[in-house]
Structure formats: structure tokens, C-alpha cells
């Protein structure tokens, strides 16, 4: 319902601002620009979805191999005591636990392309057990907050982008990002837990949070002993080895159980493709609304007001 109001608001404000610019300012091109933006943003939305389709297809196939081989269940069992308290509304045997863990792990390694499909899969699995289909469940809200805060141990993608853009020291954001995302994740977790009446003083929760904090401290100490070139090399190699190692564990366990790994991948890949197709209308809807809002000049008005206020 909120998205409905936001969507209508974007179009209504865009029309009013554009009408004002036409009548008062004599801008005869504003409505042409708005219509052009609808076509451009529709194309952009589809292109984004097209790029996401390949990634979703790949990782949903890998996840299906992990599920068939039992690797996801093993990983879920390791984190289940913590998640059972953090997501009390989810069944203990919910496959969403595995998807949530894989999403958070990919985010920690700074591998955004791998994290996105895992997050979509986790949301889909949580929606299946959501009793109110038109509203987000407590588990979905908690996951969204943790995912948005984006705890990042090894920000590989950002360091690569900085290196490509000619930053003098691409790795100087390593510790600031680690600290910022750690405390933002902790703050988000505490805020949602208080709202959802989750007992943060539970011994299991404290033990897991203590372990994560110790891991953060260890990573900061280790990387602080390396020079800037070594930080880039070690973080890049380590994150990709870990992720590919997980893939090999999935394949190895499935092969050990005599699962048809190829067929399992294809089955999961089909689900990934279907998911990618489903999100296209949502993506285009929001991008078109934003495009119209921006092309009308309403965005400039808002930014100018904010600038003057600051």
C-alpha cells in the first residue's frame, strides 16, 4: 500500500511541476523529456534485469546442488541456534536459513553479484511461510535490515572499482568500511530486536555476536599488518577462494550422495530465471516513476530545498 502512494506521488508531483514549468516558465520541452524518460527507464529496467538473469540463474543452480547434496542443511545446522532466536517466526527446518546465511556470507566477502540472488531466494522462501501475504513478516524485516546494513569483511568490489578509477590507495577504505558496516549491522539488529521483543541477552545470541566481534577484531589486526598492495591481493584471493570452495563443497557432497549434479543445477537455474522474470515489472515500475519525477524537474526542486536547508 505504501508503494502505491509513493508511485502515485511521483507521477502527480511530476505532472504539477511540469505544468508549472510549461505555463509559468514557458518550457515547451518538459513533457517531451518526461515521455522520453518513460521509454528510457523502461529499457534500463529491462537491461538491469537481463544482467541479473544470468547471475540469478547461476547461483540458484548452485544453491539447488547444495540443497540436494545436503550442504545447505549442514550449514543451516551450524547457524540454526542463532537464527532460531533471531528469526523466531521461521520454522526450524526452513530452507530460508541456508539462503540467509549464504547471502550474509557473500555480503561479508564483498561479492555483491553472489549476494543478490541469495537475498531474493531467502525473501521468496520466507514469503512462502508468511501468514500475511500483503505485509512483510518479522523475519523478512530483520533480514532486510541485516542485508541493507551489509556487514562487509572484505570489500573486494569497492577496492576493485577504486583501483579502476585511479585511486591513489584503493585499500584505504578497508578498515573504515569494516567498522562502519559492523556497527551499522549491530545497530540495526539491536533496533529491530527491541521492536520485535527478541531477547538479546540470550546466551546463544551473545555467544554468536561475541564470536563475530572477535572475528572482526582478528581481521582488522591481520590486515593492519599488511601493506596496501598485500591487502588488495590477499583480500581478493581469499574471498574468491572461499566462495569457489563453497561451490566445490556443494558439488562434492552432491556427487558423494550420487545426486545428478547437472540436473540439479538445471532445475535450480530454471527457478532463478523465473525469479528474474518476475522482478522485471517491479523494477520497471519504480524506475519509470523515478525517471518521470527527475525529468519533470521535481528532483531538482527537492535537492535545492535540501541544499538551502543544510
Structure commentary:
With 310 residues, the protein is mainly α. It has a domain at 71-256. Helices cover 80% and strands 0% of the residues. The protein is built from 12 helices and no strands. α2 packs across α10 (228-256), α2 (30-69) packs antiparallel against α11 and α8 (174-195) packs antiparallel against α9 (203-224). The longest helix is centred in the N-terminal third of the chain and has 40 residues, at 30-69. The chain is globular, with a radius of gyration of 23 Å. 32% of the residues are buried.
Question: Which descriptors apply to this entry?
Answer:
12 helices; 310 residues; globular; mainly alpha
Measured between the Cα atoms of the first and last residue, the distance is 32 Å
Number of beta-strand segments: 0
Structural class: mainly alpha
- Label the overall shape: globular
Specify Rg, calculated over alpha carbons.
23 Å
Order of helices and strands: HHHHHHHHHHHH
- What portion of residues is helical? over 70%
Rounded average pLDDT? 84
Beta-strand portion reads under 5%
Number of separate helices:
12
* Biggest sheet layout: none
Segments where pLDDT lies below 50 for 5+ residues? none
Amino acid at each position: 500500500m505504501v508503494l502505491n502512494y509513493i508511485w502515485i506521488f511521483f507521477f502527480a508531483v511530476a505532472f504539477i511541476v511540469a505544468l508549472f514549468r510549461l505555463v509559468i516558465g514557458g518550457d515547451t520541452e518538459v513533457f517531451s523529456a518526461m515521455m522520453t524518460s518513460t521509454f528510457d527507464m523502461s529499457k534500463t529496467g529491462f537491461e538491469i534485469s537481463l544482467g541479473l538473469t544470468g547471475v540469478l540463474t547461476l547461483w540458484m543452480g548452485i544453491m539447488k546442488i547444495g540443497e540436494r547434496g545436503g550442504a545447505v542443511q549442514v550449514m543451516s545446522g551450524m547457524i540454526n541456534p542463532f537464527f532460531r532466536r533471531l528469526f523466531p517466526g521461521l520454522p526450524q527446518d526452513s530452507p530460508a536459513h541456508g539462503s540467509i546465511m549464504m547471502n550474509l556470507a557473500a555480503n561479508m566477502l564483498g561479492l555483491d553479484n553472489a549476494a543478490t540472488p541469495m537475498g531474493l531466494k531467502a525473501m521468496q522462501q520466507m514469503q512462502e511461510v508468511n501468514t500475511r501475504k500483503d505485509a512483510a513478516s518479522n523475519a523478512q524485516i530483520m533480514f532486510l535490515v541485516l542485508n541493507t546494513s551489509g556487514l562487509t569483511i572484505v570489500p573486494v568490489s569497492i577496492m576493485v572499482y577504486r583501483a579502476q578509477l585511479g585511486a591513489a590507495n584503493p585499500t584505504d577504505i578497508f578498515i573504515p568500511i569494516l567498522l562502519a558496516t559492523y556497527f551499522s549491522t549491530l545497530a540495526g539488529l539491536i533496533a529491530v530486536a527491541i521492536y520485535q521483543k527478541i531477547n538479546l541477552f540470550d546466551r546463544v545470541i551473545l555467544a554468536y555476536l561475541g564470536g563475530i566481534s572477535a572475528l572482526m577484531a582478528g581481521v582488522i589486526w591481520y590486515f593492519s599488518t599488511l601493506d596496501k598492495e598485500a591487502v588488495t591481493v590477499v583480500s581478493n584471493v581469499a574471498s574468491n577462494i572461499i566462495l569457489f570452495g563453497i561451490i566445490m563443497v556443494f558439488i562434492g557432497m552432491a556427487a558423494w550422495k550420487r545426486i545428478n549434479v547437472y540436473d540439479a543445477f538445471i532445475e535450480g537455474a530454471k527457478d532463478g530465471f523465473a525469479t528474474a522474470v518476475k522482478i522485471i515489472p517491479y523494477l520497471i515500475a519504480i524506475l519509470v516513476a523515478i525517471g518521470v519525477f527527475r525529468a519533470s524537474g521535481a528532483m531538482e526542486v527537492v535537492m535545492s530545498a535540501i541544499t538551502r536547508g543544510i
